[in-house]
Amino acid sequence: MNTMPQITNLRLLFSTATNHPNPSFFLSSFKPNSLLKFNNKFPTKLHKSPSSSSYPFFTCLASSRKPHRYNSKSFNPNRRINTGNTSSLKQSDNKEESGLSSKKMELEMEDPKKAGMAAGFNKKRAEGRDKSSRPKDLKLKVRRLNPVNTISYVQVLGTGMDTQDTSPSVLLFFDKQRFIFNAGEGLQRFCTEHKIKLSKIDHIFLSRVCSETAGGLPGLLLTLAGTGEEGISVNVWGPSDFKYLVDAMKSFIPNAAMVHSRCFGALDKNPEKLHDQLKLIDDEVVKISAILLRPNCPETHELKKDEFELKSSDISVLYICELPEIRGKFDLEKARSLGLRPGPKYRELQEGISVKSDLKDIMVHPDDVLGPSVPGPIVLLVDCPTLSHFQELLLSTSSLDTFYGETPNKRVNCVIHLSSALIVNSSDYQKWMSRFHGAEHIIAGHQMKNVEIPILQSSARVAARLNYLCPQFFPAPGYWSLENLKSSMPPVINEDTDLKTISAENLLKFHLRPLAQLGLDKSSVPKIVGPTEIINDLLLEIPEISDASQQVGQLWKVDQNTIKEEPWLNNQSGVPSCLEEITRENVEIVLLGTGSSQPSKYRNVSSIFINLFSKGSVLLDCGEGTLGQLKRRFGIKGADDAVKGLKCIWISHIHADHHTGLARILALRRDLLKRVAHDPLIVIGPRQLKRFLDAYQRLEDLDMQFLDCRHTTDSKNSFQDSNLFTKGSQMQSQWKRPNSPVDMTLVSPIINNLKEVLKDAGRGKIGNNGENINGWKIVYSGDTRPCPELIKAAQGATVLIHEATFEDALVEEAIARNHSTTEEAIGVGNSAGAYRIILTHFSQRYPKIPVFDESYMHKTCIAFDMMSVNFADLHVLPRVLPYLKLLFKNEMIVDEADDVENVATAAA
Questions:
Q1: DSSP category for residue 14
Q2: Through-space distance between the first and last CA atoms of the chain, rounded to whole angstroms
Q3: What helix, strand, coil percent values describe the chain, rounded to 5?
Q4: To 10 degrees, the CA torsion angle through 383, 385, 389, 393?
Q5: Which is nearest to 894 in space by CA: 25, 89, 82?
Q6: Torsion over CA of 568, 572, 578 and 580, rounded to 10 degrees?
Q7: Which of 120, 198, 356, 779 is 20 to 30 A away from residue 265, measured at CA?
Q8: pTM
Q9: Which stretches are tagged as biased composition: Polar residues (predicted)?
C-alpha cells in the first residue's frame, strides 16, 4: 500500500518596499504601485530610482511541483484602447480630484525625474500627501430644529437579518437629524440598496461595542468622510471606553478628526449608580437616555463567577428615545381677551415662553392660551443578549418605573427588541414586556421570519441570472434550507398576555410624527421575489439567453482532451500538467467580493476564499461583509463550517475595503470553537493592522495570532528555506525601523505554527503514477500598478487574480490612484505566462459588469461576487466570457451613478 508523503506545497509571497531612505514612505500610503516607465515594451526588470522604491502587495499560493512553461505573448502597451463608453466622460470630472492634469501627466510619462515622480504611479498619493489625505478638523453640524412640524419615525434597517451575521440597525429619523442605532457590517450597502441617504447622520449609537454591532463603522465613517466638499462630522456613542477603537481607525480612515467618540458608563463606574438613566441627547426634538446592563456572571460552564472578567463587549445598553410633548391648540380668542395683539408673541407662547400682554399689565403664560398638551411618543431599544443581562434589566426598576403600568407617567409607544429569540421566548421576559401597557413590540432578533427576504435584492437578482446562465461557476446561493430554518427560534408569545408583537422586517417603520400617523407602517417592506420570477423576466428581456444557457452547459460535456490545443498559447499544451488529474475536491476559488473602495448594490469589497476542502481554507483579504457573503454563498451552516476550517487569513494592505471584515470572522470562529480544542487563527498582514486588531481585542477576545508579514520574508530566519514562502523583498513597517532587530523569541513560535498549518493544508493527493497532482499555483495581486516583481512571482501561475479597477480609457486615473486597467492586468498575466487570469476589484462606477475589450481576453474572465471557480473547470473559464457579455448586453453602458453614494476617494 502506498503511503502519502507529506509535502510542503503551499507557499505565500509577500513583497513590498525595500531600501528606501524613509522607512515610513511605504506604509504611509498603503497603496501598491510600480516604477514602470511605459515605452515600447513591458519591462521585465525593476527600474529603481535613487529617490524611491515601491513594489505592490501580492501573494502567491502554490504547490511544490515544478512550474510548467509557457510561450505566452508579451505585454503590448500599444494595443487599442476602447474609448467608446460613456464612462470615459467621467475622466475629466476626476482630474482635479486625482491631482493630475493632462499636461502634467504627459510630462511625467516623458520624463519622470523632471516631473518629480516615477512614471506609472502617483508618488504623492503613495506617500499620503494627496488632497484626499489632508487632515480636517470638522465641527459638529448645527441644525435649526422645529419640534412642532417635524416628521419622525423609527425604521428597522435589516442589516444582518437575512444572514444572521450582525445585529440589525435601527434608524431614528427626523426632518433635519438622523440617528443610527448599531452599525453592523453591510449597513451602508443596505442603505445604498434601498436609497437611504446617510449624509444627514448626526449620531451613531452602539447597543454593545463589538464586531456584531460596530463592524460596519469604519466603512460608514469612510463614506461620510467623502461626502461633499468637507465631509461630515459625527458623534459615535457607546458603553464603556471604546475611544481606543476609534483612535485605531485613524490609521486607515482619513479626516479622522470628524469622528467624535462619546463613551459612557466606564467599567469602574460607581455600582450604586449602575442602573441610573444616563442622559445623552436633549434638544428640541428628542431626548435620548441610556441604561447600562452589565452581566454579573458568565453564560458558560467553563468559568466560575469569581473568575469572570468583564469586558467592554459584555456591557449592553437599553436606549430610551423621548419626543417632546405637543402643546395644545392655540386659542386665539383667549389671547385677544388677555390683551395680546397678533404677532411674534403668539409663536413664543406656542413654544412655551411666557410674554407680557400688549394691552394689560400682566404676564401671559402658555397654559393661559393653549389647550391640553399631547404627550410625546416614546421608543425603547432593548439589547439583552443573555439571561444574565436580563437579570440586570430587572434590577433597573427604579429607572423604568415611570414607564410601567396601565396609567404610567410616560407611556411607551414602541419597544424594539434586539434580544435573541432565546431571551424573548422566556416567560419572565414576556412578563417584563407586558409591563409596558399598550406598547407595540417589534421583535428584531435573528429569527425565521427575518430570513425570508434577501436584504440585497439587486445582488440576489444578478446571482439568480448568473446561476441560470452558468450554474457551474455561479452555484445557487446557499440560502437557508428548510432544515436550517427549523433550527431558528421564532418568537413564541404566550397567548395569555395582551402583548402586541410583530416580527421585524426590512424597512418596517413605526411613525412618531405627525401624531395622526402614529403606529406601524409596512408600506416600505420589500416583497418576496423568487428565482422563477427573476428568470421569467430575464427570458422576456433577452430571449436568446435560453439557448446561451444550453450552449454553456455543452462546454462541460466536451472531452477535455479535445481542448488542449489553444491557438493563443502558440500550439503549446493548453492545460498544465498539474490539472490533468485534478478532482473537484482539490481547490476552489470563491470570489466573495469583487468591487473596490466601498460596497455597492451589486459588488461587495475585496475578499477571496480559497477552499481546499478537507484540508481547510485560506482567506485572501477580508473586506467588510465577508462573513455575510460566505453565508450567502454556503448558507448559514456551511459558512460556519468554512470559518471553522480557516487555516490563516492574509491581508494585503491597510485599506478599509480589504480588512474591516476581519474582526467579525474572528469573533464568529471564537464562538464556534469555544468548547473545542483549537489553536488561535493566524492573521498575516502589515504591522499597522495589529494596532486595529489590538483595539478590538480589548473589546472582545478575537482568538488570533498576528504575524507581521515582513517576518515571513526576513532572510535572517529560516522560514524561506521551508519553501512555504517565496523569497521577496521585505515589507517595511512604520512601527519599527528597517534595520531594527526582530525579537525572534516572539515571532518564531507563530512562524512555526504557520508552517504546520500550511504544511497540513498543502498535503496533496497522489495520482496513479505516484505523482503529486496538486502542483498548482495561485497568485493574487492585491491593489497595484503593473509590476515586474509580480510578473516574476507569477511565472507559470495556474491562476493569476489581478485587480482591474479601471477600463482601458481611464489609464490616467489608474495611475493617479495607483491601480491597473483591464489591459494592464492582462498584460501582467501574459508576461508571467499564467494559464488563467481572473480580473477583480472593479471600480463601483461599473455597477454590474466592467467595460472590457474581448479581443485580448482569450485566457481571462471577469469576476462576479460569489463566483466559484473549481480547478477542475479552469479549462472552460475564458469560454464563458462571451455569454456573460450577452447576459449584461443592456447594461454595458455606465448609467447608474446613483448606485454609489459619494465614493470616498481615499478608500479607492
A1: -
A2: 55
A3: 35, 20, 50
A4: 30
A5: 89
A6: 100
A7: 198
A8: 0.81
A9: 72-91
CB 821 within 8 A of CB 839: no
What are the grid coordinates assigned to 844, written together?
Answer: 463601483
Please answer whether residues 801 and 828 qualify as being in contact, where contact means their C-beta atoms are separated by less than 8 angstroms. no
Instruction: For 179-202, give the DSSP string.
Output: EEE---TTHHHHHHHTT---TTEE
State residue 270's pLDDT score: 54
Q: Tens of pLDDT along 817-838?
A: 999 999 999 999 999 999 999 9
Residue 507 to residue 501: CA distance in whole angstroms: 17
In order of 290, 449, 621, 656, 790, the CA distances from 708 in angstroms are 40, 43, 15, 18, 20
Using one digit for the tens of pLDDT, what is the confidence trace for 107-162?
343 443 333 333 467 766 665 556 555 555 555 566 666 666 689 999 999 888 88
C-alpha grid cell, residue 23: 522607512
Across the beta sheet with 704-708, the strand order is 704-708, 681-685, 646-650, 617-622, 607-611, 588-593, 867-870
Closest by CA to 865, choosing from 596, 506, 535, is: 596
Asked whether the beta carbons of 255 and 218 are under 8 A apart, the reply is no
Q: How many other CB atoms are there within 10 angstroms of residue 520's CB atom?
A: 14
The answer to whether residues 429 and 423 touch, using CB atoms and an 8 Å cutoff, is yes
**The three grid cell numbers given for residue 530, joined into one nine-digit string:** 423568487
The residue type found at 19 is N
Which regions of 758-888 does DSSP assign to beta strands (E)? 777-780, 799-803, 836-840, 860-862, 867-870
Instruction: Name the grid cell of 432.
Output: 417584563
Tell me how far apart the alpha carbons of residues 403 and 380 are, in angstroms, rounded to a whole number.
Answer: 10
Residue of 800, 744, 804 lying closest to 777 (CA atoms)? 800
Q: What's at 102, amino acid-wise?
A: S
707, 680 contact by CB (below 8 A) = no
Angstrom distance (rounded) from CA 175 to CA 164 = 31
CA–CA gap between residue 189 and residue 599 (Å, rounded):
6
Closest CA to 328 of 286, 377, 366, 356: 366
Q: How many residues make up the chain in this entry? A: 908
Q: How far apart are CA 736 and CA 33, in angstroms?
A: 22
| Average pLDDT value for residue range 237-249 | 83
Would you state the pLDDT for residue 292? 92
CA 622/CA 245 separation, integer angstroms: 18
Tell me the angle at which helices 662-672 and 687-699 cross, rounded to the nearest 10 degrees.
Answer: 50
DSSP E strands in 626-728: the ranges are: 646-650, 681-685, 704-708
- 206 within 8 A of 182, measured Cβ to Cβ: yes
* Angle 392-394-396 from CA coordinates, rounded to 5°: 75
| pLDDT, greater one: 299 or 717 | 299
Give start and end residues of each alpha helix (H) in 207-295: 211-214, 217-225, 243-249
How far is Cα 167 from Cα 183, in angstroms, rounded to an integer? 8
Provide CB contacts within 8 A for 798, sequence distance 6+. Answer: 576, 578, 579, 776, 777, 778, 834, 835, 836, 871, 874
